[in-house]
Amino acid sequence: MNGFLSKLTILLFVVAAVVPAQSATAGNSKNTVTMSLTGEPPDLNSMRATDTQSGFVLGHIMQGLTSRDKTGKIVPGVAESWKLDATTATFKLRKNAKWSDGKPVTAHDFVFAWQTVVDPATASQYAFILYPIKNAEAINTNKDGKKASDLGVKAVDDYTLEVAFDKPCAYFLSLAAFSTYYPVRKDFYLAQDGGKKFAADAKNLIFNGPFKLDVWEHGSKMKMTKNEFYWNKETIKMDVIDIPYFIIDAKARYNLYKDKKIDMVGLDSETFKESIKDSFKANRFADGSVFYLEFNHRPERVTRNIKLREAIRSIYNAKEVVDKVIALPGNEPAYTLFPKWLRGVGRSFRQEYPVKSHKVDFTQAKKLLEEAKKELGLTQLPPIWFLVDDGAAPKRQAEYVQGQLKKHLGLDMNIDIQTFKQRLSKMSSGDFDIVAAGWGPDYDDPMTFADLFTSWNENNRGKYANPEYDKVINEAMTTIDAKKRMDAMGKAQDILIRDVVILPQYERGIVYLQNQKLKGVVRSVVGADPNFIFASVE
Amino acid sequence: MSVETTKTQFSPSDFTAASRKDSLQQLSRPSLSYWEDVWIRFKKNRQATVSLCVVVFLLAFSFLGPFIWIVEPSQQNLNRISEGPSLGRMALVVDESSDEQTIEDPSFLYLPEHDNPNIGAPEKFEIIGTPSTLGVEIHWTPVEGAAGYLIYRSEKVSENLEAISDNGVVIKEITSGNEIGFVDRFDIQPRNYWYAIVAKSIDTTSTQYKIVSAKVVRAIGIEAAQTESKNLVKVGEMIKMSVHPLGTDYLGRDMLARLMYGGRISLIIGIFVPLIYILFGTLYGGLSGYLVDA
Amino acid sequence: MLSFIFRRMVSAVVTILALATLIFFAMHAAPGDPLLESKASSPEIRANLLKHYGLDKPLIVQYGLFMSNVFLKWDFGISYSQKNRRVNDIIRDHFPVSAILGLLAIVMATVGGILFGALTALFRNRLPDRVIMMLVIFGISVPNFVFAAWGQYWFTVLNAWAGWTVIPVAGWGTFHEMIAPAVFLEVGTLAYLTRLMRSSMLEVVTTDYIRTAKAKGLSPLRIFFSHQLRNAILPIITTLGVALAAITTGGFVIENLFAIPGLGRYFVQAVQQLDYTVIMGTGVFYGAYLIIMVQIVDVIYGFVDPRIRVSK
């Protein structure tokens, strides 16, 4: 027994010695930022990636034709100049843009990447974001016998890229900065087991962004260091972005911050209270997404009745939910689908097309409910089904709505708690009356929100279908005249509010702690967030 | 069994055959059924008895409790979120204004400046009315050139006033220079708070700030107070609020009532699950034992 | 003996095949759709995805393909959520982590359980016994993640007070980082083994051979170590196999809290995200692992305890 034990102990020590020992102390070495991610990026293949963790890493190691500055404005990236009109765009690529093996980034790399994305065999879930390009949709959906090579993108020479559009795309420059539009080099891609192993490990990736991925130990750690071949490397102050932890538990992450092991941490309502006790300075940032309750407009559901929806809106107090139920500062009550940060023609969209907060009115609500019953031909409404995720916060909000409905309208509500995937599947099949949903923007134009409730959009889970709304959005989609587009979008906003298509809840805010020595970290609504490209350590 | 022999003298009658009846053994104790025996043994075991008492208590608590403590477990009260246990708290009756309109001064000329870190702090920064758990109303005088304001809230103020914003959190971001007031309703507890205001130009935040402290009192809206009290209540009175012996949860629901309700469900599960175990366990074990031996 | 082992192996293989079948159909019967993401995709993209993962074929064909891939080619396929990784790689990379953590935990639990169990038996009904048995009740009834979350908080306090990292809050790689999660992982098992050891020791005390040993005039220490302890350990060995399997597979909460790249985390994530290939891969792997552990213990037990005849 003793012999066995001692052998085992020796074995353990040997294993411990073999696994590389590395302890990172936050802010210890100059120009290093240490942070944690909530999970490992599931897919660093820019042509297929869909999630925020992958977006964060890709945003640091890759660069598209365009890029963003500190304030989120579009600036030249790999392309140094461009011409854009309603039917075509021509990009002039800079000659000094290089891959991390020293070879130049050429127009062919973009052509290859984009053709691969729309190829049905790639099965990229973000292929739709390339649809403004000529033939992209037809290729991706196997229509008209179009092949990937028919895509409306052409490398005129190594440094000139020509793009043809199916319909005018006013926000194409913003799309060109998006990860699905990043370049991929054909010879490198094919060298990774015919593409099968591309992005499987750090060695199966090649970079053209400010950083390169040096270490990727699955499930455990990642490390990005400055890319010496990046064309604009003089402006990059940060040397290392170290991610030694993938940790999902908010409290454990908070403890890591407190222990000075990481430089940034996001807070939930529980850790927020602790951070106040510990006298940390909390920062806040609106991440650009909007959360709302989506009604089911299918004909077999009671929520198809507008009076019922109005009645529910009349008792819903968005401010109370934000202040008391969610209880995390940073969230702002929302009264429309379009968040504050969106730009309109000159000023912000919301300043140009303002909305009023709806009034809470219980007597009006009761009246509306009676009318709804009459219109539906029911003396007693069946229980309303509220579909939510199985997290703690969504359950709280659902319980709040349940309590309010019972108290003020005498309505019964069943809360249908489901796992993430099952909720999505019930949303798609329409098995709900109300569902707690949210939307994070893909690009910085009101259209990323506005087209959600067109009859053809797959994300329109409540199947709201209104030809008037479709027409307005179509108007916005077929012009690049800013004023006309925004007017159409303003009209869309009015329709959404008039028809109570959704019940906006809040614009999400993130409360986080950050090492005071870390400067210039950009929190961005679209693209990599947090963004360390402009950051430095004091 | 030893037979006691006390007789020393014998008579011939002692040696006649005994009748059948006499020879029957006498039971020395009353006959016990199986369960009676179990109960006696059970009572002897102190641990078991204590555990039984606990189970009986839990059953009584969750099944009989709701008949004594008649409080709806799903009744929410968002003004009394996450209270600790108490046998009654006093609260100030206040006029509850549900008006959520922004407080503005339209006459002020709103000309936001770009990139000016030297715009000053508001001249006046003050609490309006009694700060209560229902809301703390703060007003300030507008600053020339400000594009907006940041309002910080802190639970402790440090000696070093420069650190005010280091201790607090931005409770509200005002994005218009015309707004001159704001009602804080964010998760307010009856304690001391310090508020700080900093003006912003479009790109930068001023280095100057103003602070004000608020001693928040527990309060109840007049309407809610009237439903809780039998007598007529007036604004400004102190009344005793409804009792929550075990406090309330995150939506202000009574913990005691919820505990009874939840306990009922847990006990039912606790009874049925072992029953299922026993049923399948004995069936499977019995069968496999029988089949192997045969 | 050999035929016994052979029969055990055959039954193990049959069990694993049955298990694989069960997981396969249970997983496909489970509600939800593995291909749905928070952003919806068009029917065409969905069709492309179905083709990509072979989900467009009839279920029975998928089953046949799966079984032949796994049991003939030993290939579990590619993960749905980590789109560039083979499930075989996931198991190869992350099972050793769980195994090291589990081994460390089980060693601590066994040594501790024997030690505390023997102590309580030695001091029966006296103070050390009472105190340890109280703690044991805590250990059994409080879930280990409660201890772990509580512990992490105090580590931050301790480290701040000491000025250096006495106990790391989280992370994986060095032996230093392994200790805390292993300790929290084994709390329940430690408590259970302590109880088991105590009752087993008390049973042994009343046996004839202890009385004989006392009558022979052996020193109490000698009796304690070479007669009482050695015999009382036997029941512990029976439980070790299952306990090790349970600890290695059930550590996902601890793995999540301490950012440990163990397989348990992948298994649970896969179930949540309906990652079919990873569920199948880890499910079959864990099942096989558990079955093999139980069989090994059965065989070992026969060697350790001469009173048990395996050829029964």
Write the layout of secondary structure elements.
The complex is a heterotrimer of chains A (538), B (294) and C (312).
Chain A: H1 2-18, E1 32-37, H2 52-61, E2 66-68, E3 74-76, E4 79-84, E5 88-93, H3 107-118, H4 136-140, E6 153-157, E7 160-164, H5 172-175, H6 186-191, E8 211-217, E9 221-226, E10 240-246, H7 250-258, E11 264-266, H8 269-277, E12 282-295, H9 306-315, H10 318-326, E13 332-333, H11 349-352, H12 362-376, E14 384-389, H13 392-409, E15 413-418, H14 420-429, E16 434-439, H15 447-450, H16 467-477, H17 482-498, E17 502-514, E18 518-519, E19 536-537
Chain B: H1 20-23, H2 34-44, H3 46-68, E1 90-94, E2 103-104, E3 125-132, E4 135-140, E5 148-154, H4 164-167, E6 169-174, E7 179-184, E8 192-200, E9 205-215, E10 219-221, H5 222-228, E11 238-240, H6 255-293
Parallel strand pairs in B: 1-10
Antiparallel strand pairs in B: 1-11, 2-7, 3-4, 4-7, 5-6, 5-8, 8-9
Chain C: H1 2-29, H2 43-53, H3 59-71, H4 87-122, H5 127-141, H6 144-162, H7 175-205, H8 208-216, H9 220-232, H10 234-249, H11 252-257, H12 263-273, H13 276-304
Helix pairs in contact in C: 1-13, 4-5, 4-7, 4-10, 4-13, 5-7, 6-7, 7-9, 7-10, 8-9, 10-13, 12-13
Detailed description of the structure:
The complex is a heterotrimer of chains A (538), B (294) and C (312). Chain A is an alpha+beta fold and 538 residues long. Chain A is 32% helix and 20% strand. Chain A contains 17 helices and 19 strands. In chain B, a hairpin with a 4-residue loop joins strand 8 and strand 9. Chain B is built from 6 helices and 11 strands. In chain C, helix 1 (2-29) runs antiparallel to helix 13 (276-304) and helix 6 packs across helix 7 (175-205). The radius of gyration of chain C is 24 Å and the shape is flat. Chains in contact: A-B, A-C. At the A-C interface, helix 1, strand 10, helix 7 and helix 14 of A face helix 2, helix 4, helix 6 and helix 12 of C.
